[in-house]
Amino acid sequence: MVSWQSIRYVLFLWWVAFRMHVTFAFKLSSNMETLKAATVADGEAPRSSAQAVSSELDL
């Protein structure tokens, strides 16, 4: 018989993994959209990802 403590532990680990997945998936998708928008803006020449990130951080 599986103890309740082990079931609670497994559910807790699953919940932590799920929350991390949701958080990082959202952050990565929003960062990719920011990079795409910052790479070519207002007819500027395409910039590297590092330049796009640094310009976003300067805001």
Q: Approximately how much helix is present in the residues? A: over 70%
* Average of pLDDT: 73
Tell me the β content: under 5%
Query: What is the terminal-to-terminal distance?
Result: 57 Å
The DSSP helix count reads: 2
Number of strands: 0
Q: Please indicate the count of domains.
A: 1
Structural Rg: 20 Å
- Tell me the series of helices and strands, N- to C-terminal: HH
Question: What ranges have pLDDT less than 50 throughout 5 or more consecutive residues?
Answer: none
Structural class: mainly alpha
Strand count, sense and barrel status of the largest sheet are:
none
Oligomer: single chain
Categorize the overall geometry.
rod-shaped
Describe this structure in words.
- This protein is an all-alpha fold and 59 residues long.
- The chain has one domain.
- The protein is built from two helices and no strands.
- The protein has helices spanning 4-39, 49-58.
- The radius of gyration is 20 Å and the shape is rod-shaped.
Features:
single chain, 59 residues, mainly alpha, 2 helices, 78% helix, rod-shaped
Question: Secondary structure elements and their pairing?
Answer:
Blueprint: H1 4-39, H2 49-58
Short description:
The chain is an all-alpha fold and 59 residues long. It has one domain (4-58). The protein has helices spanning 4-39, 49-58.
